[in-house]
Amino acid sequence: MLNAQWLETFTVLSETGHFTRAADRLGMTQPGVSQHLRKLEAQLGQPLISRHGKGFELTSAGEAVAAMGLARRAEERALREGLRADDPEAGEVVVACSGSFALLLHPVLLARMRGAPRLVLRLIATPQEDIPAGLLEGRFDLGVLGHAPTHPRLDAQRIGREELCLVLPAEAPDAPLRLEDLDARGFIGHPDGFGHADELLAANFPEEFAGADRLRLRAFVNQIGQICAPVAEGIGYTLLPRSGVDAFPAREKLRVAPLPRRCHHELWLAGRRGREMPARFASVAQDIRAVAARLDAD
């Protein structure tokens, strides 16, 4: 690599066209400027100037080196300015969370992007078990977890909780629910649905519930945004976190059944421990906390 100090001395020399003026600008002696020039020429193996009396002209190699010196100076200036200006509305942020939380968070992030043309947001809906590894590998900047991470290189703050909901059509009767009533409707399954059933139905129907594998399946939906669609049309029931219910476009067609034993999932905002949070991360984290607070208030 070229010596940075010698390169800057030669760049100033090429700008001023005079050894004495270059020395004055750099706070050096004229012999010092000459010495830097000789060392840079020795490093490159060819002359950079052609002397004519008391003046000189740049050789073709000298012109190329001077152009590189100016370019490097501009890059360093841009770097310093970028480090000083931590713009909350510029740069990229990658957020990972569950599919249901993503449905509720996405419109909030879109609103932020409308006012920040230079902000790039990537929202990744992914299984919970993939988020810690993605944070550690640098694929994700922020992650929303259902529990506090245990890895020593991850840090997290509890930002709220959301209820695990039993979702019925809006016209479903208010009478106390029995498991046989649910079976008569049929379960709208989804990838996380059976685990939700083992948690919520087991807590509320301990005598009748024999396991998620014994539920009468009416349909199975693999798209998070469409899980509530059959229920909204009066077909079956399903189990979802509150975020997935509240984000459904036809929310008025759904009813969350009141249950004697409510189940909640905690929400934690996680990132790499010790990493300084740029302003753009902090602004997006603020949006995530606001969405979590809405869920916790329900």
UniProtKB/TrEMBL annotation:
Keyword Transcription (UniProt): yes
Record CDD domains: PBP2_LTTR_substrate
Keyword set includes DNA-binding: yes
Molecular-function GO terms, alphabetical: DNA-binding transcription factor activity; transcription cis-regulatory region binding
Domain HTH lysR-type: 2-59
Pfam families named among the record's database cross-references: HTH_1, LysR_substrate
Sorted UniProt keywords: DNA-binding, Transcription, Transcription regulation
Gene3D superfamilies per record: Periplasmic binding protein-like II (3.40.190.10), Winged helix-like DNA-binding domain superfamily/Winged helix DNA-binding domain (1.10.10.10)
Family indicated by similarity: Belongs to the LysR transcriptional regulatory family.
Protein name: LysR family transcriptional regulator
